[in-house]
């Protein structure tokens, strides 16, 4: 299988995630394994757990790292991090990394249903064993629920009209990405120059189909509990709602606010000293070479 994904901010990630003598690294969103390859190369002999919820990514990763016996590839949503670590008998990790969102492979494979420009089923599931596709979401949600999804995840000004259009498309028996994207394009009156009018709508539906914010909030808590003393945790976001969640979570840990994680039996969890680095964004050079990196933000937290 050809799996193309260009890892963003690779140098910034490599330098941000440096720790002394790490033994365990967990990549929560391994995708094409670009970041993982670099972190493993920088830390020879490190035990690496590479997770992804996409079966295609997992097959690719198993093949890519087949000669490294220190690497374990696991198909799982990252909100189940605690269960994965329990099964692998790993108590804590020194480096934990997540690069959120969708890979270029997912975007550029029409049959996965993420693309606004190539036709495929209106699907958008990262985990193809999950039960709800984008089409199911549109059919099963009320117009009001769709409007809320569009307002919350895409700050869509025309959320009411677009929600109506989505319902009408489903009622008329439309089932493909281009059918939906074309109707959205026709309906939108306002938009950003240079951006396909259906892009933001697709992004909002994708976030809902994959429960991206719900997964993120559970993962942050579990990852922080699993992080070893002196360990480092980095998260790359591509969306303001995600970035806010990460920023707030890191700030609260730095300020020693307690929180309650399922993975710590619901006890209030407080860790002593925590440092949070300045947020980092891609350089202009990287953005011009890889426009998909433009909204990326890297946040890094360290336990003492
Ligand atoms: C931006 S790509 C990561 C690319 C990767 N860093 C690389 O170097 O190739 C995001 C990946 O995260 C996966 N993903 C997104 N949400 C996830 C979740 N909740 N649990 C596990 N994997 C997830 C997607 O399937 C996708 O493969």
Question: Numbering strands along the chain, what is their spatial order in the largest sheet?
Answer: 3-2-1-4-5-9-8
CATH topology of the largest domain: Rossmann fold
- What portion of residues belong to β-strands? 15-25%
How much helix is in the residues? Answer: 40-55%
Total strands: 9
Task: Report the major sheet.
Answer: 7 strands, mixed
Q: What is shown here, in short?
A:
The chain has two domains: 10-105 and 212-303, 3-Layer(aba) Sandwich (Rossmann fold); 131-209, DNA polymerase, domain 1, CATH 1.10.150.170. Helix content is 42%, strand content 15%. It has helices spanning 10-16, 34-42, 55-64, 81-87, 104-108, 134-140, 143-154, 159-171, 177-187, 199-209, 212-226, 240-254, 284-289; strands at residues 24-27, 47-52, 71-75, 93-99, 227-237, 259-260, 268-269, 274-276, 297-303.
Description:
The termini are far apart. The mean pLDDT is 95. This protein has helices at residues 10-16, 34-42, 55-64, 81-87, 104-108, 134-140, 143-154, 159-171, 177-187, 199-209, 212-226, 240-254, 284-289; strands spanning 24-27, 47-52, 71-75, 93-99, 227-237, 259-260, 268-269, 274-276, 297-303. A hairpin with a 7-residue loop joins strand 6 and strand 7 (268-269). The protein has 304 residues and is α/β, with parallel strands linked by helices. S-adenosylmethionine (SAM) binds at residues 5, 7, 28-35, 51-54, 57, 77-78, 99, 101, 103, 126, 215.
